[in-house]
Amino acid sequence: MSRRTSRPRGPAAPRITPASPCPCGLPAAYGECCGRFHSGSAAAPTCEALMRSRYAAFVARDAAYLLRTWHPETRPPGVDFDPAMSWVRLEILDTTDGSAFHSTGTVTFRAHYTDDGRPDSLHEKSRFVRHEGAWVYTTAVFVD
């Protein structure tokens, strides 16, 4: 996901503990799922796992992780979080390549959110590559 905004920073991110359900939607606790990627104790093994962990980083407002997993050629100088936006749910719609046997991959997804209480969604096809052995986000095409 590449959504950025220049609005001022708002309230703190929702409290997510290792025992919380993972925001990415998989049936695992955050600490066993995306939390281990965010902490740096493991690397996402597929581009879908990276996509899910990046979504969870948007939920947790973990700018450091988002920047760390963004390709250096397309990485912005920073990530600002919109205080009026609350991420609600992630739907993975399609994946192409992106396994341990690939060097590139795509993930098409719909990320549901509310903006000032109004429901909306972001439909995107994200591109990923391996950089220095790890999956990183490069670019996206907005589907709608």
Strand content: 25-35%
Radius of gyration: 14 Å
pLDDT < 50 runs, ≥5 residues: 2-10
- Please estimate the helix content: 10-25%
Shape: globular
Structure summary, number of beta strands: 4
Assembly classification: single chain
How many strands, what sense, and barrel or not for the largest sheet? 4 strands, antiparallel
> Order of strands side by side in the largest beta sheet?
1-2-3-4
- Quote the distance from N terminus to C terminus: 14 Å
Structural class label: alpha+beta
**Separate helix tally:** 3
Give the helices and strands as they follow along the chain: HHHEEEE
Overall mean pLDDT: 92
Task: Provide keyphrases for this structure.
globular; alpha+beta; 144 residues; 4-stranded antiparallel sheet; 3 helices
Task: Note the topology.
Layout: H1 34-39, H2 47-60, H3 63-68, E1 85-97, E2 104-115, E3 118-131, E4 134-142
Antiparallel strand pairs: 1-2, 2-3, 3-4
Describe this structure in words.
The protein has 144 residues and is an alpha+beta fold. It is built from three helices and four strands; from the N terminus they run αααββββ. The chain has a four-stranded antiparallel β-sheet with strand order 1-2-3-4, with helices on one face. A hairpin with a 2-residue loop joins strand 3 (118-131) and strand 4 (134-142). The two termini are 14 Å apart. Mean pLDDT is 92; it is low at 2-10.
